[in-house]
Design a protein that fits this description.
Two copies of one chain form a homodimer.
Chain A: E1 4-11, H1 16-30, E2 34-41, E3 49-57, E4 71-74, H2 77-83, E5 92-96, E6 110-114, H3 116-122, H4 129-140, H5 146-156, H6 162-182
Parallel strand pairs in A: 1-4, 4-5, 5-6
Antiparallel strand pairs in A: 1-3, 2-3
Helix pairs in contact in A: 1-5, 3-4, 4-6, 5-6
């Protein structure tokens, strides 16, 4: 595996940092990679755009700063607008389709949408939209194995909510797989 | 405030990452600075050296990588050995005196020791050694205000443990103040 850079973004309260934490943990503890997770505090931590940057590699990550992420997940309009420009050609872009309305279809990236917040609401817990999104990411990007992610979700969420979170992950994963199969050239 | 780089280090399970999270939060939410916190996963997350890197500044932190930390906190021998060399001249070094035995007194740094784990054990909860250490840091380094740190501790620890954690913070702070007053030239 080469160095993989992933940015998860949204607004405060969506569990973006927890999702980043889980992603890094999955890569390191269960897939035996090296990883860093950086979180920004600042105006964004008071309710605006919020971002977790995860870097994964086979060797120690000495440089946790994103140079050009291969993957961007955006769960809010503000985060989308702020970060979409940094995604390189052929990069993977996943948005929550109810929270983000792109101004025209993004060009030259692999672009997918999921109603992660709506799925979470259907499951009775809006708070698990981040985990639905992680499941979708797992289907669309194979840098981290699905099994490692499932284990990391289980060991990172509050006690008593493990099963619900795994269901959320699996809902997102199923949605992601459907996206791939319906667009075989993506 | 110029850019301040702080590394908190120890081994997995000591709450190093939580301490880093609290430090960044204190700087950003309560002191209105910008901050990033980076955590490394890798072999260290499986029980070895563990580190949280916090960068704080008055302007957004675009470069979360430590160039040369001004502050190093070491709560384990392995972490001390791994990171002590990166501290610059005049930097602040704080160790848990029962966990770290320096090979000779560190030169050209401001060197302080605290029995943070022992104090936490006296308080009945070894797990709060990280918060004792944060209190000590607050006394010895004024980049983040004591009041911001207290608020960040209170809002970040598990519900029901707030008072105990504030007591731990205050024990560490008192120890740090004593260190300063007993070495007026430090």
């Amino acid at each position: 595996m080469d160095r993989i850079e992933i940015r998860l973004s949204g607004f405060g309260g969506q569990g973006i940092i927890l999702a980043g934490y889980i992603l890094g943990k999955a890569a390191a503890l269960y897939d035996h990679k090296h990883a860093t997770m950086t979180q920004n505090y600042g105006p964004e931590s008071r309710g605006g755009a919020c971002s977790a940057q995860v870097v994964m590699a086979d060797t120690p990550v000495n440089y946790p700063h994103l140079t050009q992420p291969q993957v961007l997940v955006a769960m809010s309009q503000e985060a989308y607008t702020k970060y979409v420009g940094e995604l390189g050609e052929g990069g993977l872009l996943i948005i929550d389709e109810d929270m983000v309305k792109p101004d025209g279809a993004p060009q030259r990236v692999r672009f997918y949408t999921i109603p992660s917040t709506r799925i979470a609401e259907e499951m009775g817990r809006r708070m698990i939209a981040n985990i639905v999104m992680l499941g979708c990411l797992a289907a669309l990007d194979t840098s981290v194995s699905v099994e490692a992610l499932r284990q990391a979700v289980r060991s990172s969420v509050p006690k008593g909510t493990e099963d619900l979170n795994i269901q959320a992950f699996d809902r997102g994963y199923a949605h992601g797989q459907k996206l791939i199969s319906s667009r075989p050239t993506a």
